Amino acid sequence: MSLALAGLARRRLARDRPALAALASLVLVALACLIGPFLTGHAPERIFPDFVRVAPSLSAHPRPDEVRPALQRLAFRMRVALEDVTREGDRVRLTLSAAKPIDLRSLRLLPRSGLFGEPTVLERSADGSRLVIEVPVRKLTFLLGTDALGRDLLTRCLVAGRVSLLIGLTAALAALLIGVAYGAVSGMAGGAVDALMMRLLDILYALPFVFFVIMLLVFFRAGLWLVLVAVAAVEWLDMARIVRTQTLSLKGRDFVRAAAALGAGTGTILVRHIVPNTLGPIIAAATLLVPRVILLESFLSFLGLGVQEPATSWGVLIAEGARALESAPWMLAAPAGFLVVTLVALNRLGDGLGEALDPRFQRDSAGR
Known about the structure:
The chain crosses the membrane at residues 20-39, 163-185, 205-234, 281-307, 328-346. InterPro entries: BP-dependent_transpt_permease (IPR050366), MetI-like (IPR000515), MetI-like_sf (IPR035906), OppC_N (IPR025966). It is a multi-pass membrane protein. With 368 residues, this protein is an alpha+beta fold. It has 15 helices and 4 strands. α5 packs parallel to α9 (237-250) and α13 packs antiparallel against α14 (330-357).
């Protein structure tokens, strides 16, 4: 693709406002997934047993009516009795008692709960069986609620986005590296070599993808890397067919014949003339491949064949949300929202790139 045509495509894409909006949405989603988990204030694996399936809210937890029940559960684990609770702003004064001296090491349960800070001992009886302590109350905000274990759903969705986007980008990279090379060589070779390479492609097409994944699970443990291998092993097939078709239409052009007449080898013609002139369909197809792979990974994870705990993806979260749809609909709505926005943006950006890089549109724009 010449610099003039590339500039024309860039200007055409710049005039496509829906495509630019889709690109901006993708950038925001990617940045949120990369940086967001460090800003939410919650680790993705951190469990808050006091806040299981909490609905989305802008208000902070624990609320006034949640402090005493949480302290009673902690007192039970500390094997002490909770005599009195007095809250003053962001601090709580507790009076604890027991039949025998209270081990101060048990107070570590307070900050470990995630709801309270480090305790300060204000008073202690002579025999150590009665304590008056003061602890700060931490403010916990769950913008998208929590899941069935009490984990922050916003953080989980952002971390899951890293995995889903990684799988989509890996498949696109595999399609570019394997599919472009395979299709260009097949189209340029022609004849029996082309026929043999296409029959091999047909055989790979005939293998059911889910059966292929199940077969891999027989020999290997399910996990992220297995999904990456399975997706990368089959998603280059469409790209190979696209590049082969483009190569067949280009190798009879005058500029290719001129290069061959000047002594350029087959490899040089492929690298310098054929592949650069197929970049338009390649980029558009690669952009549209990413949402398809993300959706495929979500389907595998929904069936339990994809990403496994402690890793997570949007598909895993959607599967968990579907099981808790009646009691906690936000568990399904949150990851599904991220997935829908990403898929729509990728598809719209792919359409925009396809139009911007289409030589027919470029000639029309140049003529005007």
